[in-house]
Structures are given as structure tokens and as C-alpha cells.
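Colleagues,

For the teaching module next term, I've prepared a clean inverse folding example: a structure given as C-alpha cells, and then the sequence designed for it. I'd like students to try predicting residues themselves before seeing the answer, so please don't circulate the second half yet.
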């Protein structure tokens, strides 16, 4: 079909798409607490004629909207959760919290979900007009930042019936996401001991804080024996209190444990478990642990990636006004020059060229072009619950420019950009690219068969879910 039909459909719904994004920006709700955001999406889906399912997998803020019938079934993944401590006024180039200590969309998820829904609306219109045949599904996926909502949905069988899943992420480049990322296991360790006067009778105390600190020391020594693509991070959620003259009876640590695969992440988590037990033995305290969440490593699908790239180069790129460029320059002055990650010596030389190109264009205020697609394996040390979807159905994603080049992630600068024309333009571009790729899959059964053939090879080992049936989503 003529892709201009889809592009025009997106443009016609631009006020709905950007208006939704702005409302989600204003709500700025944390993981699994996105009640207002979910209600806003559901209202738009119903108004646009989608069949809505709520409370997916028992999660109150998980939902879907579908339209059409039969095969193929193409899914779009949407996110809408915010981050704590990033409250910020929009469109200003200096820190200016709206609410001290409040929340903000420092990862652009207000844009992510709105762009994906915009694509679903465009494809729905094409199905309704008889230009496309099949089913389109928009998934409202909560809690990516703090709970890995897609993992819980994947564990319960969601996404398996899709022929393909497509998504995007706001960013500072127009670029296909390639390679894989770390699997993760997030654990909580609670130490309990006995309180006592730290001067009069410390011998009667059993310090949970000592146990937690010894656990951290033990993990530091473990680092030498981790594989190159493994990492461990921790934080105190309870240090026992603020009185130094009390032997602290409680202490709680949260650990994020990452590995190249779910199997290696789980193995590393077992070693961390043993260190926690050892710390409790050394201090005469007790320790209990439970898993908070987890994510799988992402499976790449080169056929889908190439398809997204083709559509990213076909869709009309945004044009930026002088005012928008000046705003981007002012914003760039607030953060250090980006040092883009290098590549290992044995990686594809084409990727080296790409990194050089990125470094050169990192000096631009706004990256107003598409980076070339170089199919290759690239490992990211971060984690995403999109990985869990990729083990159940062929999945691919890309980034679209919604903030200035080099902008740091999870920052007040991203929050500030979230309601600007720069962000809106990137969101509409993403909707057009996703819709175009979905149309290609619906119109070309042989292409979809190639996508599936590659998936059957890469996913041959089967989905190793990083969370067990006992793990429940944590609110907040």
C-alpha cells in the first residue's frame, strides 16, 4: 500500500497522539502505579474503536487494545512509567523542579507509548479501509523502570500469539537497535539482628547493618571472578536507623545482578545468595531474600531490523525550526560532551565506521539524519523487559530523535524536552515507521515467513523466564 496513507493517518491524529503524550508527562506515575496514565490510554483506545482488555495478567495497569481479525497479528509495545526524583518544568534549559522530590519522565516513556499507539491507530485505519488485512494489537506495558512489567506478562503467556512485535524508544539518534543486552535478576536481602546500646552492652547486640556491609564487601571480592559481561549493583533501602549509639537490628539491600543470559545471571545470583548467608553467619544475624523482578537478554532479528531501517529511511524526517535548534544548543550546554561507547577490537569494522560517524555528529545540536544499519552482534550492559518479549515472538526496535544529541539518560534534561515540539516530531516519526513496518509484514507473507524462520533458529533454546511463579509485581 501507499505508505503516505499511513503517514497522513498519523498526521491527522497528531493532536491525539501528542496530547496523550503530554498528559502522561504531567501524570508522571511510577512503576505499577500508573492508574491515571492507563485510564487515559484506555479512553483513547475505546474512542478510536479498539477492543480493550484490562487487568492483563492480574496487573491493574496492564491492558491491550486490538482491531481486525485473523492473521497476521502484529503487536506494538507501549510504556508509560516515570522515574522518581526527576520532577522538572518543560521547555527550560536549567533545573527547575515542579515538585521537590517529585517524579518525571526521564526516559521519555510518555513519548514511547504515545508513538506506539499512534502506529496502531494508523494501521487500524488501513484495516478498516480494506487496505490491510490482519490484526493489530497495542499493549500497554507498565513498570518497565522499576518492575519489568513485560516479564510478568511474558511469564503468563502474553505475546506468544503475535506474529511479530515492534517498538521504539525515544533518544538522540534515528537508528535501529541491534544486538543484545544483559539479562537481570533483582533481589532484596533483609538482615535482622538484635538492638542494643552501642556503648553499654554492644556484646548483646547483633548488627544487621554489619551483616549488610559484610555482604557488600563479599560481593566486591566476587567481582574479580565474574565473567566479562556480568555486573552487580546495590543500594540500601534500610540502613537500620540514624542513631549511631544503637546496634542496628535491621538492614535491607537491593541487588541488581546482570549476566549475558538468564542462565548466567541466575548462576551469579546464587553466588550472591551464598555471600548473604555467609554475612549473616559471621554476624549472628538472620537473612531472608526474595526476588523483585528480572529480565531476559534480547534476541535480535535481522530481518525485522532491516525492515524497520527501510521504513526509517523512507518516512519523511522532521524539519527543525531555528528556535528548536537554539533550544537544543542551550540544552547541550548543560551537560558534558557525550563520549560514545567504543567497540571491541574484534568487532565488525563497519561498526567502527559507525562509531566514528556518531562521534562526529555527536557535536550537532540535533541529529537530523538516519544512521546506517549494520547487522552485527553488539552487547549492551543495560537491561530491558523487551528481551522477554523477544523470546516469545520476533521482536525489533529502534530509536527516534526526541532530545538533543548527547543528552544523558534518566536526567532532568530529558524531562524538560518531553513536551517540546522536538519530542513531538520524533514521536510522530516513530509512529509512521512502526506503522509502515507493520503494513509490510501484513502485505508480504514471505517476508513474515523469513522473520519467523530466523526466530525459530535464535529462540531454539526456548524462553528461560527470569522470574518464578512466586514472584509478584512490586508497586512503586
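(Answer key — instructors only)
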Amino acid at each position: 500500500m501507499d505508505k503516505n496513507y499511513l503517514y497522513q493517518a498519523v498526521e491527522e491524529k497528531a493532536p491525539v497522539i501528542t496530547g496523550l503524550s503530554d498528559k502522561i508527562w504531567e501524570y508522571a506515575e511510577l512503576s505499577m502505579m500508573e492508574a491515571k496514565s492507563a485510564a487515559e490510554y484506555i479512553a483513547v483506545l475505546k474512542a478510536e474503536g479498539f477492543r480493550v482488555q484490562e487487568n492483563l495478567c492480574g496487573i491493574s495497569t496492564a491492558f491491550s487494545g486490538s482491531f481486525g481479525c485473523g492473521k497476521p497479528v502484529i503487536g506494538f509495545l507501549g510504556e508509560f512509567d516515570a522515574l522518581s526524583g526527576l520532577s522538572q518544568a518543560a521547555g527550560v534549559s536549567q533545573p527547575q523542579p515542579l515538585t521537590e522530590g517529585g517524579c518525571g519522565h526521564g526516559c521519555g516513556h510518555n513519548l514511547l507509548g504515545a508513538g506506539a499507539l499512534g502506529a496502531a491507530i494508523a494501521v487500524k485505519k488501513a484495516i478498516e479501509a480494506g487496505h490491510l488485512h490482519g490484526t493489530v494489537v497495542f499493549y500497554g506495558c507498565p513498570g518497565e523502570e522499576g518492575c519489568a512489567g513485560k516479564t510478568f506478562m511474558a511469564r503468563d503467556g502474553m505475546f506468544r500469539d503475535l506474529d511479530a512485535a515492534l517498538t521504539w524508544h525515544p533518544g538522540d539518534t534515528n537508528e535501529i537497535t541491534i544486538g543484545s543486552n544483559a539479562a537481570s535478576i533483582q533481589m532484596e536481602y533483609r538482615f535482622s539482628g538484635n538492638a542494643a546500646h552501642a556503648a553499654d552492652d554492644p556484646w548483646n547486640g547483633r548488627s544487621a547493618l554489619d551483616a549488610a556491609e559484610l555482604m557488600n564487601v563479599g560481593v566486591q571480592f566476587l567481582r574479580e571472578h565474574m565473567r566479562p559481561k556480568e555486573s552487580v549493583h546495590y543500594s540500601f533501602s534500610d540502613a537500620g536507623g540514624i542513631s549511631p549509639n544503637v546496634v542496628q537490628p535491621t538492614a535491607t539491600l537491593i541487588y541488581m545482578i546482570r549476566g549475558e543470559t538468564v542462565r548466567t545471571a541466575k548462576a551469579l545470583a546464587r553466588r550472591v545468595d551464598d555471600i548473604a548467608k555467609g554475612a549473616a553467619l559471621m554476624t549472628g544475624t538472620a537473612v531472608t531474600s526474595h526476588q523483585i523482578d528480572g529480565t531476559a537478554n534480547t534476541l535480535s532479528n535481522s530481518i525485522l531490523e532491516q525492515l524497520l531501517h527501510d521504513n526509517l529511511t523512507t518516512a519523511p524526517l522532521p524539519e527543525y525550526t531555528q528556535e528548536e535548534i537554539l533550544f537544543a544548543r542551550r540544552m547541550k550546554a548543560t551537560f558534558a560532551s557525550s563520549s560514545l561507547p567504543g567497540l571491541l577490537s574484534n568487532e565488525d569494522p563497519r561498526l567502527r565506521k559507525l562509531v566514528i560517524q556518531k562521534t562526529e555528529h555527536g557535536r550537532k545540536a540535533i541529529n537530523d539524519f538516519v544512521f546506517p544499519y549494520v547487522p552485527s552482534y553488539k552487547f549492551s550492559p543495560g537491561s530491558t523487559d523487551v528481551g522477554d518479549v523477544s523470546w516469545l515472538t520476533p521482536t525489533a526496535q529502534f530509536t527516534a530523535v526526541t532530545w538533543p544529541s548527547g543528552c544523558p539518560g534518566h536526567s532532568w534534561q530529558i524531562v524538560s524536552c518531553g513536551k517540546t515540539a522536538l519530542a513531538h516530531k520524533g514521536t510522530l516519526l516513530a509512529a509512521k515507521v512502526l506503522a509502515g513496518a507493520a503494513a509490510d509484514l501484513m502485505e508480504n507473507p514471505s517476508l513474515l515467513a523469513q522473520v519467523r524462520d530466523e526466530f525459530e533458529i535464535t529462540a531454539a533454546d526456548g524462553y528461560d523466564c527470569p522470574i518464578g511463579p512466586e514472584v509478584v509485581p512490586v508497586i512503586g
